[in-house]
Design brief:
Blueprint: H1 23-29, E1 38-39, E2 45-46, H2 52-67, H3 83-99, E3 112-116, H4 123-132, E4 135-140, H5 143-155, E5 163-167, E6 185-190, H6 198-211, H7 230-233, H8 238-250, E7 257-263, H9 270-280, E8 284-292, E9 295-303, H10 307-317
Parallel strand pairs: 3-4, 3-6, 4-5, 6-7
Antiparallel strand pairs: 1-2, 7-9, 8-9
Helix pairs in contact: 1-2, 3-4, 8-9
Amino acid sequence: MNPIPKPALVLHPRNRHQGRYDFEALTSNSPQLSAFVIANPYGEPSIDFANPAAVQALNRALLKTHYGVEHWDIPKGYLCPPIPGRADYIHYLADLLADSNGGTIPRGPAVRVLDIGIGANAIYPLIGHAEYGWRFLGSDIDPVALASAKSIIESNGGLADAIELRRQKSADHILLGVVNAGDRFDLTVCNPPFHASGYEARNSSERKWRGLGKTRPGSKSPTLNFGGVGTELWCEGGEALFIRRLVQESREVYDQVYWFSTLVSKESNLPEVLRVLKKVGAPFVRTVEMAQGQKKSRYVAWSFLHASAQRAWHEQSR
């Protein structure tokens, strides 16, 4: 296994969101954002990141300005992801593919990516297709999330051929029932449910609200600024169990995916993830740390393809 590199101090070099947001450009491209722009304590333009509507308006402006997404919306309460961090994951995965491709990032629709849990926002396919021209299959167990993702795809010309959707019908499976015979994916991306229960998710939400200096008197269910419902935020056993199941199922479709990957938000879960990967016999494992300001995260990638299988994969992809 490769040693864990030290975390980056800044976003990935190809990430479009270096430095402060350019609110002049963002509001010019998306005038709706103007209603939410305020001055921070230093007199600089910003938004109230504790306001879900403001965060959603910012995301809409970022997607339009940087990724050409003209129409983007999500149902009330669904996860509204921080785009710079999501973009980092995509760029680091592009580097992973380059390592397996003679140092050159493979681009275009020949590269197929499985987004496990595409959610209502479809953020990874939107960024990955805009940046690298990759083709995506997005899976989810939530029909409302899939309907939202479908609406985003249909509202933006050119995405119908780039993003396919498939429902996971079984709560007991992640890959099985989604990866069909004959499917081949160069990558999987996954942002697992973070919490082990709805109670844990609510407590975390309350702590984050307090950290933002906000209180919601009388509210029994605080709304997190980035939203999130049900399967987006929690599953039985939390992130650790979800990733363990993902790793175990990956062994069943080992020759249909070049690189499996998943975010591991809780650093304390990393040793268990690496232990399970060793147990299933994954010969190639990478752990890549990422940082966005003070927030640190990482992804783990693994492959079951030995040298001869890698050569055959690349020959078939040409």
